[in-house]
Amino acid sequence: MVGSNARRNFLKTSCCLGGAALFGSLVPGRSASAASLDVPVVDKLAIKVLVDSSFDIFLRPTQVHGVAFAPSRPQGDYRRSLHNEWGLSLWLESQRGSEMRSFMLDYGYTPEVLANNMELLGVDPARLDALIISHGHFDHFGGLMGFLDRYRDKLPADMKLYAGGEDNFCHRVARTATPGQFTDFGTLDRRELAARRITTVLAETPAVIGGHAFTTGRIQRNSIEKVLPQTLVEFGMKDGLGCDSSHYLPAEMAGKIVPDEHIHEHATCYHVKDRGLVVISSCGHVGIVNTVRQAQAVSGVEKVHAIVGGFHLGPAPQDYLVQVVAEIRKLQPDVVIPMHCSGLNFVQEARAQMPGNLLLSTTGGRITFGA
User: Fold this and answer.
1) How far is CA 157 from each of CA 120, 129, 170, 274, rounded to the nearest angstrom?
2) Lowest-pLDDT choice from 32-41, 220-229, 237-246
3) How far apart are CA 15 and CA 317, in angstroms?
4) What is the mean pLDDT of residues 182-191?
5) What is Dmax (Cα atoms) for the chain?
6) What residues does the Metallo-beta-lactamase domain cover (predicted)?
7) Quick one: CATH architecture of 44-228+263-370?
């Protein structure tokens, strides 16, 4: 890793040194091959929204094509309320016969908000079977270490964290309002995970989690979609902090800071009995259509029951947004449930193109799939 002053100077002078074009020309096999996976079938799935970027107390219970949303009505101290913040954290509960599984996907921006909402929503960390991180952005892992500090002793001794790949551990920086200036955006630290007795599993290829869910692995990029401008990523490691890119990038990329392509962002998916795929994209930087197609290819299941989560279309230009929503419509999902970074512009366009398939949620809500 470069020092803070060197990093600042490097960013000012060379962060756009060919940018995505340089990155694309140097990365062999950017599109991952979809590996065939024997995916499990669950009878039921429930998603509890622990943290999202909005909280609407007036959102009413809704049902769309068999998918039900119920807002939370926390009981207890009236002086406490659910909090929302920029980020996402989801509690996933599934049932397969008599077997139950609970997974946690992403951890919001701050441990304080996450802990507050978990307490008010009454989720029990002792029931967790696995942890999942979607990608290396702080608004998805910021609450993780605080969560572990608070609840580690309640978790299984052999607790695993499923990460999309080595890229999840790269250092990232973000642009500021001042042109040419950048700010630190954090690094997911595997040393801190190890210190808390967490085993990291790099799911760069598709993997089954706990006999109920599966991950997409590295996502093929074959749609019209593109990574919209956001963070920059630094490839390198120092004293165990950062990412070892040597096994998936050419040597020339070591030490480079370039526009972020989210090489190992992955999605968490379920095959719900008699319904089809539920594809959960925490941010979808690599494209929500690409993500769903990857889930279909990995599982061999064509039917898409629901597309859930962040689609990163908030910053999308209108003409591009119209195109992407049209491509989503072609996937014929029963339900589309936007969260986090999807954007109000996406909600408006989805209402225009596929109004019968849109389901809104909010922090604290519970979404159920299956009989």
Assistant:
1) 26, 10, 27, 35
2) 32-41
3) 24
4) 94
5) 59
6) 118-155
7) 4-Layer Sandwich (3.60)
